[in-house]
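Q: What structure does this chain adopt?
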Amino acid sequence: MAACPAGPDQANGGAWSTKSALGGSLTITSPGLDGSECKLDAAITLNGPGVNAFVRDNSPATETRYRAQFLVNTDSISSLNSIQSVKLFAATSDTAVNGVSELVRLNLFGNLAGTQKLLGIVTACDGQPSNICSDSVPLAAGTNTVEIDWNKTTGSLKVWINNNVEASPNKTIAANNGAWSGVDYAVLGLSTASAGYRGVALNKAISFDKFDSRRQTFIGF
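A:
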């Protein structure tokens, strides 16, 4: 969150339910992004499989609609190509369907030339290859505002990037997601880092701030 935890709360990840730093680091630093008090810096520090640095929110309860927003800054990494990727966020069900439990997954990677950073968007999508649907959207330099709206009733995932207009999301993915029960937890940080990502981004922190989640209303800025 935007408020800066101290003492035991800082060691435990602040308002988050749990944290994991397996071959990675999580550091709360000041100032934050966009004028807030502090931010969360996550970095991969060990070049090996399964490394991670993320916080987890267990407060969702089989949410059939899940909206979330966060700020992210990736400027510490100068360039990424298409095989250099890391997961930044996931909204997940406790019960997998057809081998898929992540209802929303957002990945950071680059284009083929390594000249543009992209946010990869993945959502559970029954009947499609690997039972997922995917798309991507470019990220700007500096701090980006990312917002999602996963909706089981309408069978859709909407994504806004630096966009304050609810009626005009940057991406809308139609997804046959009725087989999944809903969102049970969310993670924010770094995980599922490819070997290529670990090779170029070791010890380089990606910053996160101002996480907010809710059921119904558009968050915006």
